[in-house]
Amino acid sequence: MLLFILLFSINPVFSENCIFNVHYVTQSSSFPSNCSQIIGRFRIDENSQMTNDQLNNLFKNIREIRGVLQIWNTQMTTVTFTKSIQNITGDPLDRGLSIMNNTKLTSLNISSLMNSNEKVEIQNNPNLNLQKMCSVIHDVFFNRRFISNNSFDCGCEINGPFKWPKVKTFPENCVVLYGNLKIQGNAPPFEVLYRLLTVTKIYGSLEFESTNLETLGFLQNLQDIESGEDAETTFRLDSNWYLRRLDLIKLQSIKSRNPDSDARFFQNDELCLDPAFVQLLARSSLRKIESNSGMEYCGLDKINNPSTYCTGKLSSMNDRCIRYLGNIIYTNGVGDYSENINATKIPQADIKKMQQLEFVFGGIYIHGTALTNFSLPNLEEIYQMAAVRTPTGDRFEPWYALVLRKNDYLTEVSFPNLKMVFRDLLLVANANLTTDNDLCRKIANSVRVHGAIGMNSLYDCSLFFIEKKSIRVLFTGPSLPAVTTDGS
Ligand SMILES: *[C@@H]1O[C@H](CO)[C@@H](O)[C@H](O)[C@H]1NC(C)=O
Ligand SMILES: *[C@@H]1O[C@H](CO)[C@@H](O)[C@H](O)[C@H]1NC(C)=O
Ligand SMILES: *[C@@H]1O[C@H](CO)[C@@H](O)[C@H](O)[C@H]1NC(C)=O
Ligand SMILES: *[C@@H]1O[C@H](CO)[C@@H](O)[C@H](O)[C@H]1NC(C)=O
Ligand SMILES: *[C@@H]1O[C@H](CO)[C@@H](O)[C@H](O)[C@H]1NC(C)=O
Ligand SMILES: *[C@@H]1O[C@H](CO)[C@@H](O)[C@H](O)[C@H]1NC(C)=O
Ligand SMILES: *[C@@H]1O[C@H](CO)[C@@H](O)[C@H](O)[C@H]1NC(C)=O
Ligand SMILES: *[C@@H]1O[C@H](CO)[C@@H](O)[C@H](O)[C@H]1NC(C)=O
């Protein structure tokens, strides 16, 4: 009651005669013809004794229900009186639309529905085929749904954790799955887990925590993931000590309806990643990839399309290879303040190979060389996931993807096609390189999508270590504090 009074008092559009509170619809119901919006909880049930035609007439002017519509236990065969209703707001205590136990119902028309804030419930209508309403239900309710046990349900669903024995009745042949797939602790038995093999789309997030899983191969046919507005994370893997591989070999799209949704990976010590998965994540609409420690890439023997990558010595690399898996390291280990007597010479042939690369899954570290200029004209994306220890004992944190350090003769750098850097780019102690903010900005501006993956990521061109001779182009997500140096 309080809610209705509140709505009434803040919304002058509603006059008292459109407010019905809890209303059991019967033949004597009537809605004033000037109420296109009615407020209340409207129930049509076995006591209503109304035909669809009578309901059509009763609801003909109604475009919005501020509250709840329930159609329960009727003998109706078709429900079309709902066809012009655009909004059913719902009620925080209840579903917006509830259609239950209508044994003869075969069809429903809610084709004008555009908005609802609450859940939909359509259950136990054994003859109701929802096929023609699937796209409306998807658009309006997405995964806020309890739809089951009708003749056609528009997908199957998970409500709550995917946990034995609750998921005993999870259906076979589920192709489109609504709801968050969350496994915590031991996974359900093999027979049940592998019912997920048929799933190609998940409208919800994926979360695996402290499981005993070694692979996510039971999702090997999964193509698309799209999480809902409330999904803080769309893909989360935490403390899966036995997980070795994801084996999501058909996955091609990861999205979220929440622009701030992240991917999070923590403490999956045995896990290695397929570079294609990392690239997919980075190109997804997720805000950022969070992980406290590094993550290894799988070796070529453990990834999906090994022949599209090259790895190992640049000198033995094929001339047409554009995707490199591994770290490219040239270093003599010289200190930042030492004289660089034995500057490393990178063979021209290696330079050419490096310059043909478009995608690097690993890092590039150029330290103590005699290079005068350095350009990677074709490089578009570089993703470093793990920490790197160089042959001379330096350790780089996983977030440095591209490092140029103590190259005394270096005067020019350019990466004209670089679009994604996961995560940071470090230029330090290259004595002759004028590393001012202009250079930093030039680099940062040429990278359209940054390490923290997000079109509007900020960058921080901190000058550090050696004044004016070092920059760190640090790409951070919008949520992290970052300093820009555009003078404002
Ligand atoms: C509808 O008409 C009644 C009677 O004329 C009037 O009191 C009421 O304010 C009107 N309601 C709306 C929503 O215009
Ligand atoms: C339905 O809700 C939308 C969004 O809140 C609003 O723009 C529209 O006017 C509403 N329609 C009706 C008939 O109230
Ligand atoms: C629908 O039927 C089931 C099983 O008979 C019953 O438990 C449930 O209360 C009914 N729901 C409604 C809304 O009447
Ligand atoms: C639902 O009703 C609308 C409006 O009358 C109509 O155009 C549409 O074809 C109906 N949809 C179905 C599936 O019957
Ligand atoms: C499915 O619906 C039928 C008919 O309404 C009902 O008898 C049965 O109990 C329902 N099953 C479940 C699992 O709800
Ligand atoms: C330079 O390289 C030569 C040959 O590898 C080595 O003997 C010498 O110690 C190096 N000098 C310095 C300062 O590292
Ligand atoms: C240096 O510049 C020359 C001429 O522009 C180019 O051919 C060469 O590949 C560059 N070297 C590096 C290491 O980028
Ligand atoms: C910088 O460049 C000059 C020539 O342009 C060269 O003589 C010098 O050795 C380079 N390195 C340093 C540290 O100045």
From TrEMBL:
> For the Receptor L-domain domain, which residue ranges apply?
34-132, 173-275, 344-436
Where in the sequence is the signal peptide annotated?
1-15
Entries under Pfam families matching the protein? Recep_L_domain
This chain's protein is named Receptor L-domain domain-containing protein
- InterPro entries to which the protein is assigned, alphabetical: Rcpt_L-dom, Rcpt_L-dom_sf, SPS2_domain
What the entry lists under Gene3D superfamilies is as follows: Receptor L-domain (3.80.20.20)
This protein's UniProt keywords: Signal
Q: Does the keyword Chloroplast apply?
A: no
Keyword Signal listed? The answer is: yes
